[in-house]
Amino acid sequence: MDPMRILVVEDEPTLASTIAEWLRREAFAVDVVHDGDSALEHLSVNAYDVLVLDRDIPRVHGDVVCRRLADSGAETRILMLTAAAAVRDRVEGLALGADDYLPKPFAFVELSARVHALLRRVRPPNPPVLERAGLRVDPARRQVTRAGEFIPLANKEFALLTELVRAEGAVVATEHLLEKVWDEHIDPFTNTVRVTMMKLRRKLGEPALIETVPGVGYRIP
């Protein structure tokens, strides 16, 4: 699965945190805000694949956030959450530009399934298998093999490798990897990419496949 970025807008901190942690377990990069002003600010500076939006949020109502995002022409898909479960409320939410609507309380497994369904609309389907330099990367099954040997990878390692293989030999900037694989809370000056890349290289074995381009990023020639 291609690494994706999600914005969760929920004014109840415990619920917001739980939603974010649930989605992060599935290797999504997740940012969290608690009001409409912050949501609009984040949407103006970051490209999100999915917006999980509570309808009843302070400062700027969720309806306004939804309408502005829909009117902007952004490709971000909107999953609206609300405590109102009446058919009329669902219809209103969809009319505002939401792509899907989930009433509270909800099962997190259903939330996850709906997010995955929206993600399938964001980008064209991935090729069944990505291949480069003797590697076979299967995004659907989250499997990597080299010379026919299965290589178990952690979520971030798999996401990094997928970005490199997709680049088809081009250099992938460190900043791009930070944006695609981690969330906004990552320090841009951190050595997280370098450390994760070191672990990935070790697991991929010899001869080394990933080349470092000093001051720029990484590539698989």
UniProtKB/TrEMBL annotation:
Biological processes, Gene Ontology terms: regulation of DNA-templated transcription
Modified residues (4-aspartylphosphate): 54
Domain of life: Bacteria
DNA-binding region of this protein: 127-221
Gene Ontology molecular function, alphabetical: phosphorelay response regulator activity; transcription cis-regulatory region binding
GO cellular component, one term: protein-DNA complex
Residue span, Response regulatory domain: 5-119
SMART domains: REC, Trans_reg_C
Keywords annotated in UniProt: DNA-binding, Phosphoprotein
Pfam families documented for this protein: Response_reg (PF00072), Trans_reg_C (PF00486)
Location of the OmpR/PhoB-type domain: 127-221
Record-linked SUPFAM superfamilies: CheY-like
Protein name: DNA-binding response OmpR family regulator
Organism of origin: Saccharothrix carnea
